[in-house]
């Protein structure tokens, strides 16, 4: 029987927001990871992947639930994990050797043993000869090798990696992925399990044995997919592309929450994707040019976009009823096709209809502007309302995108200087 190494029991995480509102980031996450598994965690941007990883590491506490390591609930930091960060997190004033040795700082080992272990790991991660170099003298890929070395030198049971390759250029990342996989598959390191947050479905299917897919607002586990392929995997092979397509479909499916009446959902303030109307228009035109239906995975590849950049556009197109996803393909709806073929003015009309139908927040903004005798309202007013739901930073982003969509649809206008939103006919009146 395989040993469960780490177990999450009913983990939830909430953050308190101003005005005593709170946002739920993770909800009721149950996950069990066994010895020998390499698991990827995928999910939309901002869904809570990093938060989940940090909870596993014991760097932040969950609001509810437990993390068990080897059957014991962790208190404070998890003693079984080593962590690799996207940003490398190296100390610039320390050499490669000193940065790696830092991983052993709290271990009861003699200096000579620490030195031996650090030098051996440096060799293993391909940095032999660079022991005395400082981070600024290294390329991005080499810096991440130091980051990985610092985590591995602790000989952790579990290696947690938070988007370890996303700050690197494609070739460097591929190289490092292969080297790490080699250490793992050939058991050159004593690590018993690897858990990696990634934005790249392809990376997950290439490297891991299991992909956990999270939803957003709040994050729940919506899929747990086994990848039953031996290493080294061929990215062109049918089974590989089939799995990539399957995960794409899951990630791009807009979730209708169970037990929730459609009308109740409509009333809810639902986050919109931060995709300007111009980008969305271009995307719909592109799908139209490609025959109205295209494989998402291939499209992302052709556009050289990673999941983080690509998914919001796909989601926004779905949310507004311009496209739908099936079996890994994105296809324009009738409205989407109509939009692509329409004149500039007609496009604005269609966009207006779709936005009013699918984005309750815009409807509310317009209603408020109409209710005011001067049809005008300060940005600050809306910001305060949104802040209760999203927090200050996100509220600003949401409002910016709603203003962008509202302007494109000619539903409202915005005075950048005075920071006022107002109804379009006011714009012509003001200009007279
Ligand atoms: N201290 C905090 N207070 C309030 N909200 C927070 C805090 N830390 C994170 N969040 C929010 O929690 C959500 C999840 O963040 P997290 O970084 O875990 O997501 P992610 O899936 O890793 O994102 P990305 O894919 O963009 O890296 C975000 O909306 C973020 O704004």
TrEMBL record:
A Pfam family hit: ABC_tran
CDD domains found in the cross-reference section = ABC_NrtD_SsuB_transporters (cd03293)
Q: Could you tell me which residue ranges the ABC transporter domain spans?
A: 6-241
Query: Does the record bear Transport in its keywords?
Result: yes
Q: Does the keyword Nucleotide-binding apply?
A: yes
- Output the superkingdom of the source species: Bacteria
* GO MF, one annotated term: ATP binding
Annotated PANTHER family: ALIPHATIC SULFONATES IMPORT ATP-BINDING PROTEIN SSUB, TAURINE IMPORT ATP-BINDING PROTEIN-RELATED
**What is this protein called in UniProt?**
Nitrate ABC transporter ATP-binding protein
Q: Which organism is it from?
A: Paenibacillus ferrarius
The root-end lineage is: Bacteria, Bacillati, Bacillota, Bacilli, Bacillales
């Amino acid at each position: 029987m395989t040993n469960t190494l780490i177990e999450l029991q009913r983990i939830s995480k909430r953050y308190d927001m101003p005005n005593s509102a709170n946002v739920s980031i993770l909800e009721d996450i149950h996950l069990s990871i066994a010895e020998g598994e390499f698991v990827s965690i995928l999910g939309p941007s901002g869904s809570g992947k990093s938060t989940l990883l940090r909870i596993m590491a014991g760097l932040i506490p969950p609001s509810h639930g437990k993390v068990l390591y080897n059957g014991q609930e962790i208190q404070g930091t998890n003693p079984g994990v080593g962590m690799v960060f996207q940003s490398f997190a190296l100390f610039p004033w320390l050499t490669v050797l000193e940065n790696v040795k830092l991983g052993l700082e709290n271990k009861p080992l003699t200096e000579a043993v620490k030195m031996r272990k650090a030098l051996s790991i440096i060799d293993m991660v391909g940095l032999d000869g660079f022991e005395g170099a400082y981070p600024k003298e290294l390329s991005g890929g080499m810096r991440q090798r130091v980051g990985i070395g610092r985590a591995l030198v602790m000989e952790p049971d579990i290696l947690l990696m938070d988007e370890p390759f996303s700050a690197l250029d494609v070739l460097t990342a591929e190289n490092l992925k292969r080297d790490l996989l080699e250490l793992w598959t050939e058991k050159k390191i004593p690590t018993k399990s690897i858990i990696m947050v990634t934005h790249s479905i392809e990376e997950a299917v290439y490297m891991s044995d299991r992909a956990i897919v999270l939803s957003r607002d709040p994050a729940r586990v919506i899929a747990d997919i086994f990848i039953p392929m031996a290493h080294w995997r061929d990215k062109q092979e049918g089974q590989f592309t089939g799995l990539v397509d399957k995960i794409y479909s899951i990630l791009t499916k807009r979730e209708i929450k169970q037990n929730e009446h459609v009308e109740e959902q409509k009333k809810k303030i639902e986050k919109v994707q931060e995709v300007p109307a111009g980008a969305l228009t271009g995307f719909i035109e592109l799908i139209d040019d490609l025959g109205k239906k295209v494989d998402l995975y291939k499209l992302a590849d052709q556009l050289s976009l990673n999941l983080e950049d690509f998914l919001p556009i796909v989601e926004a197109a779905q949310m507004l009823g311009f496209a739908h996803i099936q079996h890994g393909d994105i296809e324009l709806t009738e409205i989407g096709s109509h939009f692509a073929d329409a004149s500039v003015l007609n496009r604005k009309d269609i966009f207006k209809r779709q936005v009013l139908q699918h984005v309750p927040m815009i409807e509310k903004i317009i209603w408020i502007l109409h209710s005011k005798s001067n049809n005008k309202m300060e940005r600050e007013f809306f910001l305060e309302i949104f802040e209760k739901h999203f927090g200050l930073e996100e509220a600003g982003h949401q409002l910016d995108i709603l203003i962008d969509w509202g302007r494109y649809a000619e539903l409202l206008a915005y005075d950048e200087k005075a920071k006022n939103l107002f109804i379009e006919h006011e714009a012509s009146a003001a200009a007279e």
